[in-house]
Amino acid sequence: MTEETKQYQIILIFPPSFNQETLNKSVQRIKKLITDQGGSFDSAGRDKQEIEPSSQLKKLSYPIDKHQEAFYLTYNLSLPVSAVDTLKQQLNLDSDLIRYLITVKDIIKEKPEPVIDYSEMIEKVEKIEKIEKIDQAPMQDQDSGRSVGKPKSQIEDLDKKLEEILNE
Fold first, then answer.
1. What are the sequence ranges of the domains in the chain?
2. Which of 8, 51, 108, 140 is deepest in the core (most CB within 10 A)?
3. Contact assessment for residue 29 and residue 100, using Cβ atoms and an 8 Å cutoff
4. pTM for the full model?
């Protein structure tokens, strides 16, 4: 029976008093704990043999155990779900760590592009064109059948005749 593994991210915070050798030993010990539990480091994670303390030392947003700065390391890893609790217990007992955080990495799935049904759009456009044609056509009186509205060209002709009469 295969065990389910998930993608995790682990953040490790070490005290600033560590030198490079002590930091490397602590990191290697934690990596061994992870691999002993059946975990593996992703290629995106920083799986270096040597860590430069000067490049990893960061100022903390708030003091942790009275430390203003610390070595802040992040690793991406795959780990069986059942091994997470055991790993947490072992990290809690590690006196070198100031703090740690293990989070599940969400896998972002791309949403498929919506399929556009152009037939509905075409029907709506045709309805709009029909309405425009009705609005432009002269209106018929229901009782007499006579034209109530006149086309724009006839109205312009009437305006010209009216101006001619008024100018005389």
1. 5-104, 135-168
2. 8
3. no
4. 0.56
56: Cβ–Cβ under 8 A, 6 or more apart, which residues? 23, 71, 72, 73
Rounded to the nearest angstrom, the gap between the alpha carbon of residue 57 and the centroid of all alpha carbons in its chain is 30
Picking from 70, 53, 71, the residue whose alpha carbon sits closest to that of residue 62 is 70
- Tens of pLDDT along 85-129? 999 999 999 888 999 999 998 776 677 777 777 777 787 777 777
CA–CA separation, 123 and 136 (whole Å):
20
Evaluate whether 35 touches 28 at the Cβ level (below 8 Å): no
Q: How many C-beta atoms lie closer than 10 Å to residue 8's C-beta?
A: 20
Dihedral pair phi/psi, residue 136, rounded to 5° = -85, -25
Under CATH, which number does the domain 5-104 receive?
3.30.70.60
Tokens (6 digits) for 167: 């100018």
And the tokens for 110? 């791309």
Cβ atoms 44, 75 nearer than 8 A: no
Which residues does residue 100 pair with via DSSP β-bridges, in sequence order? 12
State the Cα angle at 88 between 87 and 93, rounded to 5°: 100
